[in-house]
Amino acid sequence: MTEAHTHVPISEGAQELLRIVMENDRHGAIAWNAALVAALEWLERLHEASKRSFSGLETLLQRPRAPKTFLDFTCATLVCVQRELDRRYQGSARSEEPLVTDFNRHVLQALAETLADAAWPERSANEFDGPPVQQVADRLRNKVPPELYRSLIRNYLGNILQDCFAASRIREQVDLHRATESKLRSEDADKIAGFVIQTVQSKSAAPSVKLVIEQLKAVLDDIKR
After folding, report:
1. Is the pTM of this model over 0.85?
2. Helices and strands per DSSP (H, E), number in the chain
3. Of the candidates 46, 47, 72, 150, which lies 20 to 30 Å from 135 by C-alpha distance?
């Protein structure tokens, strides 16, 4: 049993799904890709801007019309992240991390989910726009970056696991408990995310995005082996 499995006791099913994904990931981009780096960096920027309340978020997002609700705020954030990725792609033929990957959609979805977890935890299927931006700023300010990083990694890996599970059509072959898919996120992905953040916090009181990415890559490499 590898060190990663000893410290991150995820289910056999989650291990196999991640191995399938990584075997098809020719460039090793599941952990080291521009979208994931940008999303983590934007969480840090959003948290810092939230310390100046609504005005800080308004300045950071640089929109002609200030966002009024959670939905508006999240859409503006995703646009900013995509624009940053577009600038990197157009402006430089050389990049330390893959710029366009199959994982981009999982990253952007995870960023929206992470913002919702932080700023709109009481959401329900009957609601659409979410709380006002002032409340979003207040709730983001009460988080710390490592907590936001953990949420992003949990949602990112959860999206990947659930997508691979659906694509594999496992339910057509095996009779599984109805909670199997949700546990891929709430238990397996969360265990990996928790281990990553706990490890980087043991190395640095204020872990950098680079350190988070490196630790995530190390855990996934162990699972692949």
Report:
1. yes
2. 11, 0
3. 150
Torsion angle defined by CA atoms of residues 161, 12, 213 and 41, in that order, rounded to the nearest 10 degrees: 30
Instruction: Print the domain residue range for 8.
Output: 3-224
Burial class (CB in 10 A: 0-12, 13-18, 19+), 181: middle
What tokens were used for 88? 């990197």
Count CB neighbours of 179 within 10 A.
Answer: 10
User: What is the separation of C-alpha 164 from the centre of its chain, rounded to a whole number of angstroms?
Assistant: 16
First to last CA, the chain: 10
Q: Which residues of 4-27 are buried (b: 16+ CB within 10 A; e: fewer)?
A: beeebebeebbbebbeebbeebee
Burial class (CB in 10 A: 0-12, 13-18, 19+), 112: middle
What tokens were used for 131?
């709380």
Sequence-distant (6+) residues with CB within 8 A of 40 are 149, 152, 209, 212, 213
CA-CA-CA-CA torsion sign (134, 136, 142, 148): negative
Read off the pLDDT of residues 102-132 as tens digits, 9 standing for 90 and up.
Answer: 899 999 999 999 999 999 998 887 788 999 9
Q: Tokens representing 177?
A: 């408990």
Q: How many domains does the chain have?
A: 1
* Residue 173 per-residue DSSP state: T
CA distance 161 to 109: 13
Short-list 47, 40, 31, CA closest to 150: 40
Query: Residues near 78 by Cβ (< 8 Å), separated by ≥ 6?
Result: 108, 111, 112
With H, G, I as helix, E, B as strand and everything else as coil, classify residue 132.
strand
